[in-house]
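Please fill in the sequence for the structure shown.

STRUCTURE ENCODING:
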């Protein structure tokens, strides 16, 4: 995507020294666009845990470079396995993290120690390039859905209306290496001249929708409106949502979808109102080792402070945090929920679209166990 007209990825290696890894600090958005310079595996682990970098595909790419940084200092097999295990524990729900680490370890185990660091950087770049192409293709296959809606509206004499998409959390280019998953079809529709409008869920408690999705849609010029998390069902009842497209942190063999907390409720509202509910799924997020998402996917429980406190921009321009929960009240913060496959209209992958089922996924991914 572009920032101030310049094509930009969300992660890159320093051109001057050839090894420092740069990412955007997402905790500073939308107030400022600041860059983190990561120089060792501990900084990478902290960036992932603290959500300075987040988004399932991106944390996989960042973790891959974390291994590369670690191997610059110590390229032994012992260090490779130690750092891989450490990074794998930073976030439990998104499978892309483990997928990227396992891919890196497979490649690097076969390399002589003296060649591992160079090979690690090459493989991390390959993971990033793969993510970009994967998301571009997801956008193409999702774009067809938006074109169909636009064509139907035109045939009904409503061609002046935009295609209204509702999304939840942030599954845009800032959550990936480029393009995004759920937002990729939207960007491609906008770029080809289609009238498209996005309802952006705020996505409590960290407000990734209001802070990140709204920021990047605005930067790209896509019309959008931020709404409270509880507004989606109302909008669907009044026929103001044509399609829901969300991203995912893990999809099971039978098509259950883990995504940011609140996604399940959107799927229930969509089902009740006959609104198509689609999930953008890159291959790195498909986990055929898991069957029942509700019972088997570990759900990350994050700090209660994310619920009890809000951070925002004060009238004087300063960034402040304020408590919004009564003193003495406990708070729980499950970061994800699981939407059963029965509520999912279909999956948009880089290989095409399919139903959210074991048969549908096996048809697109016969090479995955």
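FILLED IN BY: designer on duty
SEQUENCE:
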């Amino acid at each position: 995507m572009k920032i101030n007209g310049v094509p930009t990825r969300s992660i890159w290696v320093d051109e001057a020294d050839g090894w420092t890894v740069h990412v955007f600090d997402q905790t500073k958005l939308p107030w400022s666009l600041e860059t983190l310079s990561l120089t060792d595996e501990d900084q990478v682990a902290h960036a992932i845990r603290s959500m300075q970098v987040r988004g399932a595909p991106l944390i996989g790419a960042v973790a891959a470079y974390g291994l590369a940084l670690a191997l610059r200092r110590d390229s032994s097999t012992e260090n490779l396995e130690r750092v891989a295990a450490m990074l794998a524990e930073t976030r439990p729900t998104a499978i892309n993290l483990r997928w990227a680490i396992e891919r890196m370890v497979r490649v690097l185990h076969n390399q002589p120690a003296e060649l591992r660091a160079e090979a690690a950087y090459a493989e991390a770049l390959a993971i990033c390039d793969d993510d970009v192409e994967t998301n571009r293709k997801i956008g193409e296959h999702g774009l067809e859905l938006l074109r169909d809606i636009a064509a139907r509206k035109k045939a009904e004499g409503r061609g002046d209306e935009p295609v209204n998409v509702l999304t939840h959390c942030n599954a845009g280019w800032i959550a990936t290496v480029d393009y995004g998953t759920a937002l990729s079809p939207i960007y491609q529709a906008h770029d080809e001249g289609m009238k498209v409008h996005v309802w952006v869920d705020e996505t409590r408690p960290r407000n990734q929708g209001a802070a990140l999705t709204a920021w990047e849609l605005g930067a790209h010029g896509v019309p959008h409106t931020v709404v409270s998390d509880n507004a989606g069902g109302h909008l669907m009842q009044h026929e103001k949502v044509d399609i829901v497209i969300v991203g995912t942190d893990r999809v099971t063999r039978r098509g259950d979808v883990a995504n940011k907390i609140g996604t399940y409720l959107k799927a229930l509202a969509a089902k009740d109102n006959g609104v198509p509910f689609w999930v953008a799924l890159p291959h790195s997020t498909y986990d055929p080792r898991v069957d029942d998402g509700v019972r088997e996917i570990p759900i990350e429980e994050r700090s209660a402070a994310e619920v009890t406190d809000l951070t925002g921009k004060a009238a004087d321009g300063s960034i402040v945090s304020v408590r919004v929960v009564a003193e003495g009240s406990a708070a729980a913060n499950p970061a994800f929920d699981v939407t059963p496959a029965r509520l999912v209209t279909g999956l948009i992958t880089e290989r095409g679209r399919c139903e959210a089922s074991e048969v549908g996924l096996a048809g697109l991914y016969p090479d995955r166990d």
